[in-house]
Design a protein that fits this description.
With 144 residues, the chain is α/β, with parallel strands linked by helices. The chain has helices at residues 14-26, 30-39, 56-65, 90-106, 128-142; strands spanning 42-48, 76-83, 109-117.
């Protein structure tokens, strides 16, 4: 969203202070995130499923990475997807395919791609097997 703030004050006083406070609240911090992605050795993308795909927040970050694509070549990546349908549902296949296409283009090494069914707010917290699997992935990645 493009936001235009028109300053009607000829002085640099309270109105400018108000504008700066407003701008801090409306600032897009994805450029900072993209820089951290460029610097990272391993990137873990974690997303709930929204409308058979990744969330707009993850998509926004991926889109912002487009301009730094060559700086992202060869990264190690993990993907965690949590959705309200069983993991054999089409939505997980679509997300896996999207990450596969991106990883082929950027020569990413996808270390893992885990999908989990959790329709209630605390469902995953009660899934000891899934949590153990994620801890094991974390330990494996940390050891790299």
């Amino acid at each position: 969203m493009k936001i235009l703030v028109l300053n009607g004050s000829p002085r640099k006083g309270n109105t400018v202070t108000a504008i700066h406070a407003f701008a801090q609240g409306a600032k897009d911090d994805t450029n900072t995130i993209v820089d951290k992605i460029v610097d990272a050795d391993v990137i873990i993308f974690a997303t709930p499923v929204y409308w058979w795909g990744i969330t707009a927040q993850i998509k926004l970050v991926l889109d912002k990475c487009y301009c730094k694509g060559m700086m992202l070549k060869g990264k190690k990546v993990g993907v965690i997807v949590v959705g309200g349908s069983t993991t054999d549902n089409e939505q997980y296949r679509l997300i896996r395919g999207q990450f596969r296409c991106i990883s082929e283009y950027l020569e990413w090494d996808i270390l893992f791609h885990k999908s989990y069914y959790a329709s209630g707010k605390e469902d995953l917290a009660g899934n000891a097997e899934a949590l153990a699997e994620l801890r094991t992935e974390g330990e494996r990645i940390y050891a790299i």
